Amino acid sequence: MKIFTKLGSFIARKLLQKSGLRVTRPGPYGVFDFESFLCRHLEVHGTLNFVQIGANDGVMNDPIYKFLQKNKNRVSGFVLEPLPNIFSLLVKNYEAFPNIKPLNFAVHNSETEMLLYRVKPEHLSELPAFARGIASFDPNHWKKTSLVPDQDYIQSEIVKCISYSQLLENYGIAEIGLLLIDTEGYDYEILMGIDFTNVRPRIIRFEHGVRDRIMSESNFIEIIERLNSHGYQIIAESYDATAYLLEPKDLIF
Description:
The chain is of the alpha/beta class. Helix content is 27%, strand content 23%. It has a domain at 2-62 and 74-104 and 175-245: Rossmann fold.
């Protein structure tokens, strides 16, 4: 949960409004509770199918794990994690969720293999737990956090990749209630590559990280413009954004 009056959120919202884009201020006092948002969606629609790109181990700082625990008989989906050792944790953490399938891929628009830059496993015990989640296609991504002291803590690893469109085709995904994207710097490319005339997720949540230059202001605005053009309302938080299609029966707020 993040508060709109925090600096990062304020900047993100003003940036979008200055560009004439549609931004929603959710709930009383500007507080947005993503889990409550999903619960309301589930109440209206009865079930929820989702795709999570960049799932890590499925638990650490995960925006939907608690929601899934409470609703695992009504929710189904796919969780993607490219790093093999983290993927094994993901599989273990979702053993009790028969309707959720872990997939060992990164999503990339054009390549079937990519170098992913991650913290060396032998250094993880020296760093905050969150350091495990900063793997990125960008070799300099670690510099945008205060978690990693220097380059010696980083190594590259080849990972398998699949495009978003190939993911939908290979696994027969014809409808998505929720699309979650957290790829440490590649969210922009994925969102700009989605064919919304094919499958249009009802809800999209992604990381912009404008305050830490994870995504540039211009790229953030470009994404919001594109989502707005496809009928999405936007909730901008300090580090993440949620886009949703407002249907007549979706009295979310």
